[in-house]
């Protein structure tokens, strides 16, 4: 059994559940998933967990008495998830392991979850083969709001990591002291989920928004939360996607000899592999110099991700969008925030 406990740190409730899940505590995870469904939240984590954990969950759910009915607050056909679930279900029933794996993040009620898990059990061998050895990139963001720049970066990272790669995104929680520093986590998570899956820039089967808040719990300690999610997915690497601005700042911290800082702890982690998204504002030579320094000093694996030279993408930032809205320039803000989004029925194929 592996412990994720850290001295002086209390795990976030979701972290504690997932850590327990990997150590055999399946029932609490099933209970939590059902509870989340009743408040409108899909169990997206099931789309990225190791196949043995997914099968354990499916077998546990199968022992429950479920009538297949919809949750009281299930939003039906007007829910953006509905066309995705219908499209994926058709393929999943034909044995497509990619579709079976993607189904959980689009379920809207217990009946749908039960149907999805039945297909997991029927296609255990195929799902295990599809998930085994799959690279999972991790990205965190406040997504205040999520915009075309975020989604472009995700798509570029997936291309850089190869056609078998997937990506997990997380939303930063509200600041524990500055309570009003960000809009509510729930609002940003819910909007981010729909925008991520309906973007024309990313394959919705390869990206998953994970309901594990960044801020509380293990994210305070070096690379502990990154390790938890890497272990959950079965990836032997801890793949972290950062912008070149964050990377250059962390390199400066490392050059300053601040060995106790989280940035340096992450660089030292043997399993760490960074994906550095190059912002056009940063000179390539400065980024490459930083990469060389970190690789020589710590041996960290690093992949440079070049973003497409698109003017709209370059102009996109959450602060810019907020400024435009404050100035009443909603049309321009919408362009930076929503241009790549499609109707769910179109995005679902």
Condensed summary:
This protein is of the alpha/beta class.
User: Globular, elongated, flat, extended or rod-shaped: what is the shape?
Assistant: globular
- Describe the sheet with the most strands: 6 strands, parallel
How many DSSP H or I helices? 17
Named at the architecture level, the CATH assignment of the largest domain is 3-Layer(aba) Sandwich
Mean pLDDT: 91
How many structural units, i.e. domains?
2
Helical content, roughly? 40-55%
Helix and strand topology:
Blueprint: H1 13-22, H2 27-38, H3 51-62, H4 81-93, H5 97-102, H6 110-122, H7 124-131, E1 136-141, H8 148-161, E2 166-172, H9 185-197, E3 207-214, H10 224-233, E4 238-243, H11 244-255, H12 262-268, E5 272-278, H13 284-298, E6 301-306, H14 311-315, H15 318-326, H16 330-338, H17 344-347
Parallel strand pairs: 1-2, 1-4, 2-3, 4-5, 5-6
Primary descriptors:
349 residues; alpha/beta; Rossmann fold; 2 domains; six-stranded parallel β-sheet; 17 helices; 6 strands
What does this entry look like structurally?
The chain has 349 residues and is α/β, with parallel strands linked by helices. It contains 17 helices and six strands. The protein has two domains: 118 residues, no CATH class; 206 residues, Rossmann fold. α13 links the parallel β5 and β6. α1 crosses α2, α1 packs across α10 and α3 packs across α6. It is globular.
